[in-house]
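Supplementary Methods, section 5.1.

A reviewer requested that the exact input to the structure prediction be made available. We therefore reproduce it here, unchanged from the version used in the analyses.
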Amino acid sequence: MTSDSARPRPRRRSGVWVAAILAVVLVVGVGVWWAVSSQQPAATEAASPAATVTATPTPTPTPTPTPTPTGFAANTTAYPLDALPEAEVYSVIPALAVDDDPQGGFTGDLVRAVADRIPVFADPTAAPVAFLARDAPYDGTTVPVIERQDSWVRVLLAGREATPSTGDPGQLTGWLRVQDVEFSRADSTVSVDLAARTIDIGHADGTSERVADDFGSGASGTPTPVGRTFVMLVRAEPSFAYTRGHPLVYLGVQSPTLDGFGGATVAVTAFHYHDARSGDISNGCLRLSPEAIDRLAQLPVGTPVQIR
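The structure derived from this sequence is encoded cell-by-cell as follows.
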C-alpha cells in the first residue's frame, strides 16, 4: 500500500508542469501576436491613398512680338539723280514743301549723306524730286531732323520752294531715307527771341548761355523770318566791310520779302557783326556784337536755330 500510494504523486507533478508549460506558451503566443499586430498599420491607414506627386507643367514660352515698323515703308530702289535739282541755297524746288510747323521742335539728330549724292523725297511713297550732296560749296549738307521714323527722316533743307514774288519762301523741308544718311547729335540749339532781343545757346546737358541782350533785326518791310532753321554755313567774307573781318553765320532760311539781295538771286538770313546793331534796322539779318558773333561762329553746321 505504501508503494502504491506513492506512485500517483509523479503523475500529479507532470500535470502541473504541463499546465505551466501551456500557460507559458499561451502567454508567449499572445505577446508575439500583440507585437506583430501592433506593427501593422491600422485599417484606416491602410485604406488611405498614397500621397500623389503632381509635376509642375513647363510653361510655354511667349514669343517676343516683332515690333511694328513706324512710318512709311522702306524703299531700297536705286534712283538716277542726274536729272534732278540739288537741294542747295540757290535752288528753287517747287516740288518740295515749306515747313508746316515752323514753331515745332527738333529731334536732336543731325544727318549727312553717306554717298556723294542721295535722293530727296517730297513724298516717301513716290519718286525723289531732288538730291542732297555730301559736300557743297555753301554747305547746307549737314541738316537737322524734325521727324524720325524707322526708315525715313524729315529734315530742314537749304533752298526755297518759291521766291517771295511767286510763292512761299519759307524754310524748305524734305524726306531722306535712313539707309542714305549717317547720324550725329546736336550739341546745342540757338534760341532767338525777337521781342526780348535775346539770343541763347541751349546745351544738351540742359544748361544755357546768354549770347546777346540786344541785336539789330529786320525792318518792317524786310523782316527777319521766324520759325525753325539751322546753321547752314560759317564763313568770313573780307569783301563785306561791315563785318569788320568777323565771320558770318548763314542760316538755312531766306528773306520772306526779298527775292534776292546785293545782286545775288538769294537773300539768306545770317548772324553777323555790324556797327549799328540795335532795333529793327536790317534787311532781315541779325546784327550782333563782336563777342556774340564770334561765339555763334563756333557752332557746327547743322546746329538747330529757333527764331520766335
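The chain has four helices and 17 strands. These observations are discussed further in the main text.
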